[in-house]
Each structure stands twice: as C-alpha cells, then as structure tokens.
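#random but structural
TW: two for the price of one
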Amino acid sequence: AEYGSYDDKGFRPTTVLQRPLFERPLFNAYLYLLASLGILEISETQPPLLLTKNEKLHPLTPYEALDSVRLTEFGAWCMNMVEQRPQPKKQVFETITDKELLLVTFKGKSLERRLFLEQIGIPLGVERFRITEASFIRGCSSSSDIVSRIDKFKLIIDPDPSDRWKQFFASLEKRSTLFCHGEQVLLYTFPDDPEIRRMFATDPAFKKLLIRAEDNKVVVRKGNQKAFQKLLMEHGYLNTL
C-alpha cells in the first residue's frame, strides 16, 4: 500500500493488497446488489474475523460471508438465456418486533430485509437484532435520511409498530433537529494574567460580549468581534485576529 495525496484520502491499496481490500469486496458488493434484485441467489458462510476494532474481531468487509452464487430463473430471463419470464416466487419470511424492547427477530429469506436490519441494528446471533438510537441513524447525514429510514422500517419490517417503537421513532426525529442550528464564534486564548481575568470578570461591557470558557479562553460571537476589539483597545490591548 502507499499513501497518496490528500484528495484520495491518504491510503491507496496497491499490488498484493488491492485485491483483498478493494477488488474482491467491490465485486462481492455487486453480487449482493444483484441478489437484492432477484437476479442471483446467494448462500453465506461464517466469515473469517480478520479485523480488530475496539478490541473485537470483525470481518474485513461486510461481504466476507459470501459463499456461493446461483443464477435465478428471473436472472436467466434478464440475461436473455430463456424467452419466457418466470412467475415471481413468493418470498417466505417473518419479522417480529418486540412490543416493549427494541428488538427485531427475522426469519426466512428476504435479502432486502436482512440487509436493512444489519444497517440499522446490532446483530444478536443469527436471527435477532437490537436497535438503538446510534445504530438506527448510522450512515445518515440529515433529518430527512432518518425520516426515510423510519418510513422504510414501517414499510418492510412492521407496518403497525407498538407504542414503544412510535416513541422511539419520535425521539429519533426530535434528536435529529436538536443540533442543526448554530452560530459562528471566535475563540480567544489569553495569558494567565490576573489583570486580564479581572477586566473580563468585572467590566459590564465585556460581560455582555463574552462567553467564558475554560483554560484562559473566551468565546465571542462573530457579530460582536468589532465591539470586542474596540473594548480591548480602550483598555490598551491590540487585537489583530
């Protein structure tokens, strides 16, 4: 491997690492995508645990469990290998959401549902998933992403969730907007000088502008920067920030 420029995030697998870290996971990901469309049927095995994270062993990539693939009748039709389109097979699966605990049990074959549960939950064995606030929003970047994920949960996991789940979803939506508003501020560091500390603590004009921080630091809203600079100059201090 080699470390490249800033634009390529600093790490570029080459030579012997390129195949296990990039080519094979990408190829397997495409196979999972085709399986989710019904073109392939896949079987899985226990993946090797080669990656250590937070003192726990994990598969190298999410696609290491892939064992074998088989072209479905629908896939054969998509590839013009047969002329007649096959009748869609009814998927046999069952999802059970606990009414009190944030647990989901999944049984049967539905790659879409299993991948979704792996996306939002923490596996507890083969069939059960524990859902937390952190696991549910994993990979989301906006409140609309979270709302879409909640809608998908109701669509493919449980169309009529219990009150406990409704409270959970309401909490997720509320949390998604709590830290979406902010303002620009300036952080100033000053020396450990009793005179400066006394000036900031006792002068009413400074007290209106400053938000005290720790370790000889003060925070000033960007809109108050000029007023802060003027006050400093009135006390004999030059601010060039």
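TW: number two ↓
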Amino acid sequence: MGYILGISAYYHDSAACLLKDAEIIAAAQEERFSRIKNDESFPSEAIKFCLKFANISLTEVDHVVFYEKPFLKFERLLETYVHFAPRGLKSFLKSMPIWLKDKLFIKKNIAKALNGIDPKWEKSRAILFTSHHHAHAASAFYPSPFEQAVVLTVDGVGEWATTNVSIGSSAHLTLKKEINFPNSIGLLYSAFTYYLGFKVNSDEYKVMGLASYGTPVYKQLIYDHLIDVKTDGSFRLNMDYFDYCTGLKMTNKKFDKHLAIQRVRETKNCWHFIKT
C-alpha cells in the first residue's frame, strides 16, 4: 500500500497526516508551526514535519488525498444560490471570485505547493479527493480496534452531507443514511455560537464549555421553533430563522426576536455582555 499523505486546507485548521500501510505514522496541524490560530493555509510545515518524522522524502509518497471534493461543493453552492435567488446575491458575488480564481483549481494548487516542498515531486496524478464525511468516518473507524462498527459523522457541512451513518467492516465503509444541507446540527450549533457573539468555526468549544454551567431553559423553544427531530433521529431545521444559505450571517431578525438571550461581544482582552 505504501505511503499516503492526507491533507486538509483552505478552510480552517489545515493539517497533514502520513500513513504507511494503513498505519498512522505522524500527524500535525499547521497552526502548531505558523502560530496562527486555526490557520487555513496549505499545511507545508505540517507536511515537512510528517516527512521528517518518517525519515522519507515527498517523492516516496504514493498518494496524496485531499479531504473533500471541491466540484461537488461548488455544485452545492450554485444550486443553493439558484434556489434562493434573488436572495443571496451579495454572498454570491463575494464567494464566486474566490472559487473561480482558486478553489476550483485546488488540484493544481496542491501540486504547486507540494512541488515547492520538494522540487523533485511531480506526481500530480497521485492527488486524490475523498468526500468530506467519508474522510471523517475513515479517520474514526480505521484507527479503531473494531472490525465492525456503526460510524456516525455530524458536522456543519461537507459537499452536501451534514450527517452520515456508515457501516464499517474490515477495510470498507458503506454509507447507509445521509442528511444533506441546509439541515445541519453543526450549523445549528454554529448559529448559536454566532448569535452569542463568538466566532464561527473557532469558538464553538467556548459555547460548549459555557453550556456546562447553564440550565436548558431554552430547550423547548429550540424544539418548537428551530428544529424538528423525527422519531428515527433524523431532523429538519426551520430555515425561516437562519440566514446562512443566502446571507453573510448565520441567523436573522426572526431568530433574534424569538431568542432574547444575553449575548457576548468578545474583544482581545475581555468579554462585553449585551442584554437583549
């Protein structure tokens, strides 16, 4: 099987992981080297660390795998904008130049970055792309001690999927159930993170920590207005309260009206509490 280099980049918390014959050899986040929190840049230093740890050169790597499929993600963005048009025009105009300039050409950019690490590396054909949630499931199941397992992945959104249920068996992962965007537990959590005054894709852990000091006084309100949980565990969000499909914010005025919660404006040195 040889060496496989896994890469995540260009969104948040870029990282690299090196495997040999399906065994993890080394892994690191780029922020550990750049000292930039949640660094999203190409993980050059993390890759160098992994290669040095394994005492190999980049030319000895058989395959490079990126953590999602950009064209499917672009498809989701286009279909979402078309579905909600003319709402979302501002968000569309802001995101499209980035996609048309860089994100649609990620394979080329990865090849260029890897060549910058090692000029002898010329294996652009060795760059592969896996789906976002398959990458999540694989990272949980394959290093585990289990020969068989049910694997549940829940996050914001990958290409289309926000929640997946897979069956892991030996070296195989088989998708069984899937919930797609815009219905997302992860984005619901990020919506509250945003509403409370914290940074999305960064400060969710702060909300999680603070939650342990609270009581669930808003639980029924959330079930009544924001999310419909079915008896089989699937769910749907009430998109009347959210703005992330079309806008540059996670929530909207209707969300603000129904959830009069004390919020926080976080600065570099302190928190300012805002009563609503």
